[in-house]
Amino acid sequence: MSPSEHALDPAEVASQLERLAARACAVPVEPGTSVSDEDLRRLLSAAIRLYAAVSEQAAEDIVPINAEVSTTDAVVLACALLKARELNPFDLALWFSRARTAG
Length: 103
What we know:
The protein is built from five helices and no strands. The chain has 103 residues and is an all-alpha fold.
């Protein structure tokens, strides 16, 4: 097989993650939908690295979420990311003011 045959289809991966999220958010929770903390870390870490790489190469901000993500969900993740790297709102303000340069 060629390397391109081993490549993952981003649209298919996104679809699978959307299905997993829908099952995890279902009330009542569907059996077998629990995601371990480690698997969640791996998924988010990979998605974050992908976003950062594509965004830097594009030299512009890319809207990272669609309308299905609530403001609450976005803020919950944003706060968790800041805490995970021991950052605070002041640190975040510095990043908001940084100039974009082509990667």
